[in-house]
Each structure stands twice: as structure tokens, then as C-alpha cells.
């Protein structure tokens, strides 16, 4: 295998804020909702991405929430298109890491925030005061983290080649699950008796969540970018740099079938009844395939890498985002483009709100943006000083959480009449 660059993967390959909490389908969909950079299939562009990430990480911006607007926008003045009232630059609070922030998520009652970073740490914060409550250390960059269902445990995974299980109160390390290269993700099954992890060592592995015993090894021909349980944890879906999506029996490890793209596969997800699989790739395509036979049903095209995709609630539409700087809404039956939303750099994630009237997206242009999902009108922008890795809204839609390569996690007060994201 060629040397693997440490660029931030598209949101679908990195961590999921809800990993391990809601079963295989939601794990896959959230992998499509958190943040991920796509690249063309050449070594030159991989190396360029690696250099850009190093530069962003070295900057380690320390931006306070009350910096004046011009200081926040001085690097990208051409993107300040909205009136000041519609362009949010001052966060309610800023949580600082010592390196680029790869992800963050509220706990269930929104009293705490879990974040993880290239500074080798997972941190737990008081969501009101911003006080740092807990710091968990890996030996290299942390790729992701998640609470379990009752928030007594934290699962994290890292460039140090391990996934680790921690006591969420004391910070005691309970288990170490070893791979032989960077661990890109991990997820509990529904009853939290097993843990699925995946790695640049070309494997996805299943572990006993109590003892840490390795139960199963599933092998690709190159780095494994993601994996997910199905609802009853009888099947595992995995996707890889080798250009394939593979379906496995979760007990025996037998491979059921392989779906092939023409380049790295950045993500995949079942639909609600697990009869369809949606996959997306560096080749610029998103495929809808039959989950029983693997037959391709639909192909959706971007001009550059397809960094992520997701169905809406009734599966009549598909939302996708790309290295071509667009978010697109498609008719899921015909494949017709219904809407195109334009950023100024690669888009790393997008999500509908609860009633699907708004779309929240985030990008390498340093912004998270909210759009009218019918007209495509841009409603407002949230600004960071570097690539926005991900964003989400709290339950009552009063705040947005975003995280960035500028080393910050930001909490934004959002007027309820402007956004109803959940």
C-alpha cells in the first residue's frame, strides 16, 4: 500500500458525533453528516492536501468570540456577500484545543460537549461555562470519539493505531483495542456488547466490548475508511481506499458481495429498510445499489469527488456534497438535480433540518451556511478562520455547534425564526 497522507477525511470517513448510539443505519448516515475532504485520484493531489493540512494545523488560530468582523474576514473578504445581520461572526463561546479540531458533539441533555483534536486529546467541556472537565490522551492525533448510550463510557480512536474505551467520569482507560495503523473510526453495536473498528491497516475488526478480545477481522486491499452495523448487527458494511464497498456476515466474517467504484470510496449507508445501499466516491459519483444483489440502480454525478450523501426521511430525495464546492439535492427515483447550493471550496458535510425546510452545510471556505431547501437561498453564514470540519444544531434549534482546522469549537446563538435544525 502507498503511504497514506494525514489529510482530514471527508466527514463520512472521520468520526460521527452519534457513533455507537443509534445502530448501523444512523451510524452510516451520521458518517455522511459530520465533515470530509475529497480528492482526485492522483498522488500529486494527495500530497498537496497533506501540505495544506499541516499548514492549517501549524497556524492553530486562537480566535476569541468578540473579535471584530474585519479580523475574522480578512483572509476571505470576497466571501462576505451577506448583510452583517445575516452573517454571524461572533460565537457565544469558543473552546480551544492545541491543534485542529476534528469533531465535537453535545451530550443528550446538552450540558456537556465532547470534542477531539489533532492535539492528541479528547476533551469534555461544561457546555454553559466552557470549563474543561476532562482530558483523555492518545499518543497521536485523535480521529474521533463518542459517548455510549448512558454516557458512562467514551470510545475514542486515533492515529496511534488504537481505539480506547474510557470511564466518562474518572477518565480511567478501561480497554485498548490495537490496530497496526491509524484507526479511522469505531462504533458499538446496538446493545454495546461489541465494538467495530476500522483502520488504515486494511482491516475492520470486531471486539468484545467487555474483555477487548478480538472476535473478527474483515480485510480490504487498502485503508478502510468506514464501516457500520446494520440494525440487528447481523451484517457489516465497510468501504475502502481500494474502491470497494463490501457487505459481510457479522458472525462468520463471510463476504456477501462487493460494490465497486472507480476510486476511493468515502462512505456508504443503508436506507431505512436496508433494501438499498447509497455509496459515494472520489470518482465523483454516488451510487444507489440493491442491498441483496449489489446491482446498481442509480448513479449521481459531481464534477469532483463526492464527499458525502444522505437520503431524506421519505427517501424521495438525496442530498450530496462534493469537492466541486457544491451541495446538491436530487430526485431519488430519476436522478434529476433539483437544487445546487454553492460554496467557495470543497464541501465536507451537509444535513437537512427536521422538517427538511433548511439545509446546513460546511466547507473548506471557512464557513457553515444555512440555506432554504426549496429555493436554495442562502439564509446566513457562520465564520471560522479555516476549514470547517463539521456542524450540528442542538435539540431546540437555539444553538449551532461547529468545529474547524482553526483549532476551535464554537457555539453560536441562532435566532429561532432563522433556523429550525434538529
Strand content range = over 45%
Please mark out the parts with pLDDT under 50 across 5 or more consecutive residues, or reply none.
1-8, 11-86, 417-422
Distance between the termini: 41 Å
Helix content: under 10%
Overall shape: it is globular
Radius of gyration: 20 Å
- How many β strands by DSSP? 33
Structural class, judged by helices and strands? mainly beta
Spatial order of the strands in the main sheet? 1-30-29-28-27
Which CATH-level-2 architecture?
7 Propeller
Your description of this structure?
The strands form 8 sheets. A 5-stranded mixed β-sheet has the order 1-30-29-28-27, with no helix packed on it. It has a 4-stranded antiparallel β-sheet with strand order 2-33-32-31, with no helix packed on it. The protein has 422 residues and is mainly β. The longest helix is centred in the N-terminal third of the chain and has 17 residues, at 43-59. The relative contact order is 0.15. It has helices at 23-31, 43-59, 69-73, and strands at residues 87-88, 93-96, 101-106, 112-117, 121-126, 132-137, 142-147, 153-158, 162-167, 173-178, 183-188, 194-199, 203-208, 214-219, 224-229, 235-240, 244-249, 255-260, 265-270, 276-281, 285-290, 296-301, 306-311, 317-322, 326-331, 337-342, 347-352, 358-363, 367-372, 378-383, 388-393, 399-404, 408-413. The protein contains 3 helices and 33 strands. The chain has one domain: Methylamine Dehydrogenase, Chain H, CATH 2.130.10.
Amino acid at each position: 500500500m502507498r503511504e497514506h497522507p494525514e489529510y482530514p477525511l471527508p466527514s463520512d470517513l472521520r468520526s460521527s458525533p452519534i457513533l455507537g448510539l443509534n445502530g448501523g443505519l444512523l451510524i452510516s448516515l451520521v458518517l455522511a453528516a459530520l465533515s470530509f475532504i475529497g480528492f482526485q485520484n492522483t498522488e500529486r493531489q494527495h500530497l498537496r492536501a497533506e501540505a495544506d493540512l499541516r499548514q492549517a494545523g501549524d497556524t492553530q488560530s486562537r480566535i476569541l468570540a468578540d473579535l471584530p468582523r474585519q479580523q475574522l474576514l480578512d483572509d476571505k473578504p470576497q466571501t462576505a456577500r451577506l448583510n452583517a445581520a445575516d452573517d454571524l461572526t461572533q460565537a457565544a463561546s469558543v473552546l480551544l484545543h492545541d491543534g485542529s479540531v476534528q469533531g465535537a458533539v453535545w451530550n443528550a441533555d446538552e450540558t456537556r460537549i465532547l470534542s477531539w483534536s489533532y492535539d492528541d486529546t479528547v476533551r469534555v467541556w461544561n457546555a454553559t461555562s466552557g470549563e474543561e472537565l476532562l482530558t483523555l490522551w492518545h499518543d497521536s492525533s485523535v480521529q474521533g470519539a463518542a459517548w455510549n448510550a448512558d454516557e458512562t463510557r467514551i470510545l475514542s480512536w486515533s492515529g496511534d493505531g488504537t481505539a480506547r474505551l474510557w470511564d466518562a467520569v474518572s477518565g480511567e482507560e478501561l480497554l485498548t483495542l490495537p490496530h497496526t495503523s491509524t484507526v479511522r473510526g469505531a462504533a458499538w453495536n446496538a446493545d454495546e456488547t461489541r465494538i467495530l473498528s476500522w483502520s488504515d491497516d486494511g482491516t475492520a475488526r470486531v471486539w468484545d466490548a467487555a474483555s477487548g478480545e478480538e472476535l473478527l477481522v474483515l480485510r480490504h486491499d487498502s485503508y478502510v475508511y468506514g464501516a457500520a452495523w446494520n440494525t440487528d448487527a447481523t451484517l457489516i458494511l465497510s468501504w475502502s481506499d481500494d474502491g470497494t464497498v463490501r457487505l459481510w456476515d457479522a458472525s462468520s466474517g463471510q463476504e456477501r458481495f462487493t460494490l465497486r467504484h472507480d476510486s476511493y470510496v468515502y462512505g456508504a449507508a443503508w436506507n431505512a429498510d436496508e433494501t438499498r445501499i447509497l455509496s459515494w466516491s472520489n470518482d465523483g459519483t454516488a451510487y444507489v445499489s440493491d442491498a441483496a444483489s449489489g446491482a446498481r440502480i442509480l448513479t449521481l454525478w459531481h464534477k469532483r469527488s463526492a464527499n458525502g450523501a444522505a437520503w431524506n426521511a421519505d427517501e424521495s430525495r438525496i442530498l450530496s456534497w462534493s469537492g466541486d464546492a457544491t451541495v446538491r439535492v436530487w430526485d431519488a427515483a430519476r436522478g434529476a438535480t433539483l437544487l445546487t447550493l454553492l460554496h467557495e471550496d470543497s464541501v465536507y458535510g451537509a444535513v437537512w433540518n427536521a422538517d427538511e425546510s433548511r439545509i446546513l452545510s460546511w466547507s473548506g471556505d471557512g464557513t457553515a451556511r444555512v440555506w432554504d431547501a426549496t429555493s436554495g437561498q442562502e439564509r446566513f453564514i457562520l465564520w471560522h478562520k479555516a476549514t470547517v470540519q463539521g456542524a450540528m444544531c442542538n435539540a431546540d434549534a437555539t444553538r449551532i455547534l461547529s468545529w474547524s482546522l482553526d483549532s476551535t469549537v464554537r457555539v453560536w446563538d441562532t435566532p429561532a425564526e432563522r433556523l429550525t435544525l434538529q
